[in-house]
Design a protein that fits this description.
about 500 residues, alpha/beta, 6-stranded mixed beta sheet, about 15% strand, globular
């Protein structure tokens, strides 16, 4: 037995509290592959050790607790930004912050615990372990509208392996990370030949990622897009004394002379102005005059009777609203509260809603015509976390257009993880993304996932950037997640059949 395998068995046989703390620490290290740290080799190494610990378990209960403990550590660090929204109105919501991080870490940890236990029940090998984690990431991204944040595969966004997402999306990246972890464990523990062959395969995948990276540079005649970042901290954003300051800042950025002349489009972030659409006429007139005939995209709220929407509008060259989009994938407990009218009686409401059930959902993904630049698929903040929101578009757009208010996420890891997922969406679709964020990070992202320019987190400013071209439709854009889900399901089924045969033979 190798020293690595002996260490794994020793930890599994340790007292429960030591076993729990050890697994939590492994999970913490695994989370360091996420943005902003982006130490993805550490994730592979930590998951390799976790896989070795899983192999050393003797019962499905042991394996389940191992997965839960490691998941708690992983999600506690990766999702530590979840406390930030509760600090915006501390007197009202601050008491919820510790409950949020604890309950979220445990809840997300269950999506590791169950596949660990199932995999041990199905024979305890690599195939059910990998398949189970992939399938439960699918479940995590869909259950209760889904929360696919900090997926294991997201650590590869910082590596050339990102470009495999154009073939299989985030799920293929998860397969690569877990496969590499299994390979690494067997290489250092019990099977150098298998491990060496696996390392060659991983090296081929790495080289393939480099080869798959497309040339997505903008041409000399590409349109110029101005991205405006006002940097309005969330606790000041709706302060009556600060509202005119942030509005004037955006107007000044809109009117400013750029190095490349007047832009072809100007983009403001989510809820960029504090007025309801019906009452926003004077503000929109000011914006139109500042833009001097350049179309403007911006976010604001609107209502239909007692229903409120988080919306995006397109002001054309004449200052008329020629397109409108309502956000359809809302943030649970943020933009709306399940059973909100009942809970509001006890003073509980969504963080971004004043009372009751909060915002209403729009009809779904749709394209917006932005004149000579072509058609855009609008994404308002949280919608960009879900690949299925892009796959559900009625037709292929020429670009992705994200407006967001990442001020809710503070100045730590959240905004960087959101930006990383925006890069992933561009690679999956082969489309450029215009990303305007209130406090950052605003950026132009090309179809290869690279940033051609950005405004740093916590800074106010604007950038005039050329719009990269749309690339040929990717394999993933055509087939979605179905093939990877089918592959993982097949692996799990084969593991189940093999486990039954082994039990019958014994």
């Amino acid at each position: 037995m190798s020293q690595a395998a002996a260490l794994a068995q020793k930890l599994i046989k340790a007292r429960p509290i030591l076993r729990f703390l050890g697994a939590v620490c492994v999970g913490l290290v695994a989370a360091l592959g996420q943005a902003p740290w982006e130490l993805w080799p550490l994730t592979i190494a930590a998951l390799a050790l976790l896989y070795g610990l899983y192999l050393s378990t003797t019962t499905w209960r042991q394996a389940t607790m191992l997965g839960l403990s490691a998941g708690i550590g992983y999600f506690a660090l990766a999702l530590n930004w979840i406390v930030e929204p509760f600090f915006v109105d501390f007197a009202r919501h601050g008491w919820m912050a510790p409950f949020a991080i604890v309950l979220l870490s445990i809840g997300m940890g269950l999506f590791w615990a169950v596949p660990f236990g199932i995999a041990r029940r199905f024979g305890g090998g690599a195939l059910p372990w990998i398949a189970g984690l992939v399938l439960f990431e699918v479940l995590r991204g869909t259950l209760f509208t889904g929360f696919p944040w900090a997926q294991i595969g997201h650590v590869l966004i910082a590596s050339p392996l990102l470009h495999w997402a154009s073939w299989g999306g985030a799920l293929l990246l998860i397969l690569i990370v877990l496969g590499a972890s299994v390979i690494l464990w067997h290489f250092i523990s019990d099977n150098r030949t298998f491990g060496a062959l696996g390392i060659l395969v991983f090296g081929a995948l790495y080289g393939g990622g480099l080869a798959l990276k497309p040339n997505a540079a903008a041409g000399p005649d590409a349109p110029i897009v101005r991205i405006v970042q006002p940097n309005a901290p969330q606790h000041e954003k709706w302060d009556p004394e600060m509202i005119p300051v942030f509005f004037k800042r955006q107007v000044d950025f809109t009117a400013a002379s750029g190095d490349q002349g007047r832009p072809d489009l100007i983009v403001w972030p989510e809820t960029a102005i504090p007025y309801m659409l019906d009452n926003a006429g004077p503000a929109l007139d000011i914006i139109h005059r500042a833009a001097a005939g350049t179309p403007v995209v911006l976010g604001l709220r609107r209502n239909e009777g007692r229903r409120f929407f988080n919306s995006l509008i397109y002001l054309d060259e004449a200052g008329q609203i020629s397109a409108q989009y309502d956000k359809h994938h809302l943030v649970p407990f943020g933009e709306y509260m399940p059973f909100g009218d009942t809970l509001s009686r006890w003073g509980i409401s969504g963080l971004a809603a004043s009372n009751g059930s909060g915002f209403s959902a729009g009809p779904g993904p749709e394209l917006v015509d932005i004149g000579e630049l072509g058609s855009a698929l609008p994404l308002i903040c949280y919608e960009g976390v879900f690949a299925r929101n892009l796959l559900a578009a009625p037709e292929r757009a020429e670009m992705l257009l994200m407006i967001t208010n990442d001020a809710w996420f503070g100045q730590a890891s959240g905004p960087y993880q959101h930006l990383a997922q925006a890069r992933l969406r561009s690679v999956e679709q082969g489309l450029p993304m215009i990303r305007a964020a209130n406090t950052g990070v605003s950026a132009m992202i090309d179809g290869a996932g690279d940033l051609s320019g950005s405004i740093a987190l916590g800074e106010a400013g604007f950038l005039d950037l050329t719009l990269p071209p749309s690339l040929p439709e990717t394999i993933y854009a055509r087939v979605g997640d179905g093939p990877i889900i089918l592959f993982a399901s097949t692996l799990m089924l084969l593991s189940f059949i093999s486990a039954r045969k082994q039990r019958a033979a014994s």
